[in-house]
Amino acid sequence: MASNPAARAINNAMYGLARSGGFGVHRCPQCRYAGTVEAGALLRAAREAAGISLRGMAERTFYSRTYLGLIETGQRPVPAGVTAAYERVLGTTDLGRLTAAARSAASVDASALSDVAAMLASIRRVEDATGALSVLPAVRGMSAMTEEFAREARAERTAAAALASEVTQYRGWLEHAVGADTAARRSLATAVDLASESHDRDRLVHSLGFAGYVAWGATGDYDEVIAFSDAALGVRGSHPVLAAYARMRRAELLAARGETGEAQRALTAADEAAAAADGVEPPEAMYWWTPGFGAVQRGGVLALLGETAQAVEEATAGLAEMPIEHRRTEWLASALRRVDPDLTGT
């Protein structure tokens, strides 16, 4: 893989991240029970995916809030009775199997990975409504668990690596959203590494794009960010929506750098990629990408190019097309501020 230009760019970009702290895996410093932090985090993730507070779960299961909090943070083991109580409240029979997989990562199977992916999708929607800080602890636990799956799975290691990349990338995004950029860069470095291991083109393009996004905000190192962009654009055969996103990000980077001519050409290429992706269902990890959001992102590029009135007009039109549930999210607010500080989704 290292013989092609895209791979060399990936290596260079990952070296830059390694200098900032490497590819560390999250560990809970308070956990006194080996193997329980992942199982406890799984219960927390399932609860939060259902939109149930810890207090609400305590009331419904007849366990104390303090006791459940210790279990969910890995400071107490997970008894079978607690797992059964969570299953009853959540209306599922899958948690017992998933907690068993968390305790013995080597035994994880395709069904368990699918259940974790569904849980992740639900947590993303919870974040849309409640913000990054509310779901970050649960996602950190899921990240540790899925990374263990990727290392230990006997039968599904490639699929486990792809899922771990997605979860860890999401963790990095959440860490960035709450201002923890050093942790975010470590998480995204791990996500890129896992995507490469999984040989999943979509995961690789997506993780490289987010790694570059965070690197730009954290360091302003243009060469490093362009290396990420080169690597993402060099991956052939990725999902059309991911290709459109990567090209729009490239236009944004060039515009931010003041390279007006290059940025305008990149924007034309991004428009062509967006047209090719029109009507194509995005990957689950990019559920937030809609034509309306694409218009907001394009408005951000135009604003950097000094075309403020056109930027606001396009972003406002795009905003009107977006789903209602996306309009109050933190990530949309961030994108709108790049168009105009006074532009809001409400």
TrEMBL record:
Domain named HTH cro/C1-type: residues: 43-98
UniProt GO MF annotations: DNA binding
Pfam families noted in UniProt: HTH_31
InterPro entries associated with the record: Cro/C1-type_HTH, Lambda_DNA-bd_dom_sf
SUPFAM superfamilies for the chain: lambda repressor-like DNA-binding domains
TM stretches of this protein: none
Superkingdom of source: Bacteria
Protein name: Helix-turn-helix domain-containing protein
Organism: Nocardia terpenica
Organism lineage: Bacteria, Bacillati, Actinomycetota, Actinomycetes, Mycobacteriales
